[in-house]
């Protein structure tokens, strides 16, 4: 364990200020995320260096489609989460406390550095990396010293002050915007949309950002809601890629999988405002990058081919906003 950052004494125990839940944690107790515990008035990060999973993944798996396309990234994750999504796709680590291996920041960076030439850095992912804050910050600093990129795959529920310390260390974010209505966040995730919207805006001002939304039938899949989300994102940066992803039953939600027709409707609604919308977990052409001017496929992820010429469409010359080198 390591002493946590962003907390202060409170008559009821220790006041955690890491995320918007602002838990007041009594002696011997843990906060909502289960990872931060009050022992003798000191708040500890129980999961510092506790790694539940690690793997070398394609960058597209995060998903990041406009950040070093075709590259790989060494992915690590812990346990715990400050949400309790009923449809959690990684509930075995996010909502439980599984077996772990212990890592130091130096060991994590060494593992990433030895993962091969196509690896560009470290991704903090699998469960919610925000509740791994101290380890993520220390590891990201070490990664930067070794010339590696840092990627955060997050639910976006973090307070502005701790986020401000991470922003200079992160090169890219994939942020889950789980729905575009507060009722869904409150009743299905135990979170707040307003907090996530703030994080998206702050992250987009400092790093490459892509957004994922898992579409659940009857809960967050209305085309007008997706259009409103896309319009809001376009107001931040019109070139933010949006990934609408197919849901499958998981954890405490047994609603049948998202129909392909729903994904198609969501895609059309979002494309009215955003030029780069992708369809995930469904296979097919939805993973490919098309030129927004002439509709040519300029990155074919099914075949692992880039047709871009200096990041321009070879057919019409439209510049495609890609961060970093294309490695297909």
Strands, helices and their partners?
Elements: E1 2-3, E2 7-10, E3 13-16, E4 24-25, E5 36-39, E6 42-45, E7 50-51, E8 53-58, E9 72-77, H1 91-94, E10 101-102, H2 105-113, E11 119-124, H3 133-145, E12 149-154, H4 160-166, E13 172-176, H5 182-189, H6 193-204, E14 208-215, H7 223-236, E15 242-246, H8 260-271, E16 277-280, E17 289-290, E18 297-300, E19 305-306
Parallel strand pairs: 9-11, 11-12, 12-13, 13-14, 14-15, 15-16
Antiparallel strand pairs: 1-6, 2-3, 3-4, 5-6, 7-10, 8-9, 17-18, 18-19
Overview of the molecule:
- Helices cover 24% and strands 24% of the residues.
- With 328 residues, the chain is of the alpha/beta class.
- It has three domains: 2-45, no CATH class; 50-286, Alpha-Beta Barrel (TIM Barrel), CATH 3.20.20; 288-328, no CATH class.
- The strands form five sheets. It has an eight-stranded mixed β-sheet. Strands 1-6-5 form a three-stranded antiparallel β-sheet, with no helix packed on it.
- Helix 3 links the parallel strand 11 and strand 12.
- Helix 7 (223-236) packs parallel to helix 8.
- It starts with a strand and ends in a 22-residue tail after the last strand.
Structure described in brief:
With 328 residues, the chain is an alpha/beta fold.
**Which regions contain 5 or more consecutive residues with pLDDT less than 50?**
none
**Rg, Cα atoms, Å:** 20 Å
Q: Per the principal axes of the C-alpha atoms, what is the gross shape?
A: globular
Largest sheet: 8 strands, mixed
The CATH superfamily of the largest domain is: Aldolase class I
Find the CATH topology of the largest domain. TIM Barrel
Number of helices: 8
- The number of strands is 19
């Amino acid at each position: 364990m390591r002493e946590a950052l962003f907390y202060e004494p409170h008559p009821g125990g220790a006041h955690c200020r890491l995320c918007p839940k602002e838990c007041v944690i009594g002696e011997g107790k843990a906060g909502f995320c289960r990872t931060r515990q009050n022992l003798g008035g000191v708040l500890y990060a129980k999961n510092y260096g506790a790694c539940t999973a690690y793997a070398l993944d394609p960058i597209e798996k995060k998903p990041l489609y406009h950040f070093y396309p075709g590259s790989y990234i060494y992915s690590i994750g812990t346990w715990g989460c400050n949400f309790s999504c009923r449809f959690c796709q990684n509930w075995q680590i996010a909502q439980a406390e599984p077996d772990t291996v212990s890592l130091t920041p130096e060991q994590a960076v060494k593992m990433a550095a030895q993962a091969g030439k196509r690896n560009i850095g470290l991704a903090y992912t699998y469960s919610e990396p925000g509740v791994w804050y101290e380890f993520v910050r220390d590891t990201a600093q070490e990664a930067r010293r070794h010339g590696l990129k840092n990627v955060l795959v997050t639910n976006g529920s973090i307070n502005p002050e701790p986020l401000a310390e991470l922003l200079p260390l992160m090169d890219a974010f994939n942020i889950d915007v789980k729905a575009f209505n507060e009722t869904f966040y409150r009743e299905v995730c135990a979170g707040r949309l307003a907090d996530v919207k703030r994080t998206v805006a702050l992250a987009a001002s400092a790093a490459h950002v892509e957004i994922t939304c898992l579409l659940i039938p009857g809960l967050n899949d209305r085309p007008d809601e997706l259009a409103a989300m896309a319009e809001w994102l376009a107001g931040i940066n019109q070139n933010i890629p949006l990934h609408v992803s197919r849901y499958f039953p998981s954890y405490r939600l047994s609603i049948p999988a998202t129909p392909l027709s729903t994904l198609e409707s969501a895609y059309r609604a979002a494309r009215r405002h955003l030029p780069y919308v992708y369809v995930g977990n469904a296979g097919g052409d939805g993973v490919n990058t098309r030129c927004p001017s002439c509709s040519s496929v300029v990155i074919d992820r099914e075949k692992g081919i880039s047709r871009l010429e200096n990041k321009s469409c070879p057919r019409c010359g439209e510049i495609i906003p890609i961060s970093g080198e294309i490695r297909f």
